[in-house]
Amino acid sequence: MSALNLDILGPALVAGLLILATHVPLGTIVLNRGIIFIDIALAQVAALGVVFGNLVLGATTGWAVQLSAVGAAVGCSLLLTWTDKRFPAIQEAIIGVLYIVAAALQIVLLSYSPNGSEYLKQLLVGQILWVSQLQLIVLGLLSAVALVLWAVRDLVRERILFYGIFAVMITASVQIVGVLLVFASLIVPALATLHAPRRWRLMVAFNIGTAGYLIGLVLSAVLDISTGAAIVCSLVLVALLSAIAISRLSDEPLAIPGHHGEGHGHDHSGHDHSGHGAVSHAPGAPVGGAAN
User: Residue 61: which pLDDT band, with cuts at 50, 70 and 90?
Assistant: First the structure.
């Protein structure tokens, strides 16, 4: 089928796999800490940085836009690190406020552009089909560094490092797949695998994400629809079916991540990279994915 051009779909799938490689473990930590909207808020702030670089600084490509985006995301992550220590009880509300402010400022800036509506759509759903070789190389290098740090450091306890890695990876991915798919890649696979055995949770989540990206890419090519939106819908559908299957196999009630608080660290002796150590449970509450 001519629509299934591997020269276009191949690099897009590679980009999706690289994004999932870091977003799945980061998303698991985010979900278990109860700061669900941090990813979409940072993605929106990074997108605001891109808009600022393009429209205010006058840069269209290159390092100026990248520095503007990274600077915005890192600045936001530093602010969230500070609020996380000072106001942990309302951290999620603060994240929500940052998101709507960033979105509003983005719309204000784009109102001065004759192509503002199209640019806003691009920021939301991305242009994964047109990912360049240079973008793949940069994304691959950043992903490798992030995965090494995730493996050797405790990102649940080291909040500054966590927010820093999070900001950089969100900035890199949002320019390829857009705000909506960044959020979906972080949260949907992690949410679908709450019932999965702890040692298999990340692998199952990655496979769910891979299936969602693959199905979405094929559907977008065959039906000639928005690729980013198709992947988001496919990812959610695959995750829903997988969550039902996992729940029936595990015979466990739905595990709800604990609310964010100061006691969300995990035991270094186990160094649990699945993020389960970051969950606080009420007495007698079932622990999702505890049975291996």
Answer: low
